[in-house]
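One thing: can you check what follows?
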Amino acid sequence: MALLQVDNLKKSFNNKTVLKGVNLQIDKGDVVAIIGPSGSGKTTFLKSINLLEQPDSGTLKLNDDQLDFSKVTPAEKLKIRRKIAMVFQNYALFKNKTALENITEGLIYGRNVSKDQATQRANKELAAVGLLDKQDFYPAQLSGGQQQRIGIARATALDPEIILFDEPTSALDPELVGTVVDDIDKLARNGQTMIVVTHLISFARRVANKVIFFEDGNVLAFGSPEDILDHPKNERIKQFLSAISKDH
């Protein structure tokens, strides 16, 4: 049985249709990379799954929980967000909170975990990304790569069923990309289900077992990295990959 199933997801902004009836089915342990040109709806799709954007229509099923996007209740929204965490392109850390506090906040106030337990869990996740010694640092005192890894630790501390990553490496200096990729690769090997929007084809090839190509608000192709990245049959995907390889 699929862990996550999205059917006919549609979303418009100001009479412009951004998502045109997207379908997705992923199983537990899948790492799905979403690639495609800018403006094709990739980030909107991620935010719709996590209900940071409210889709106009469609349905979502996560394990036994099912909801209709056109009439989501606050309780349903909260339930889904407790099971799906998100790591943002621009880190989205609280500037006035330390690395440790950025992780414990969601546990204490979102999950009603005691402060001691939240601190223990946060320290465990900081250690997993190699930043336990930075627990008392504020975001401004950390590099972009370190801030992104705090974001990853914050997501994993919530023990989500799925983690969504929106271009997790795009705001980083090139020499910092590797550490973040390593952290995500480690999560993949540990069986964490993830959906990753990325422009780095080498990253998609390394961590994903399924690849989606987005074009103009819809899924143009869905398959293995070998099918989509190494031996694409679709001319549009060949053209895109060729252009990307020239840029990198």
Observations:
- Residues 93-159 form one domain.
- The beta strands are 4-13, 16-26, 31-35, 57-62, 65-68, 84-87, 162-166, 193-197, 210-215, 218-223.
- Residues 174-189 form the longest helix (16 residues).
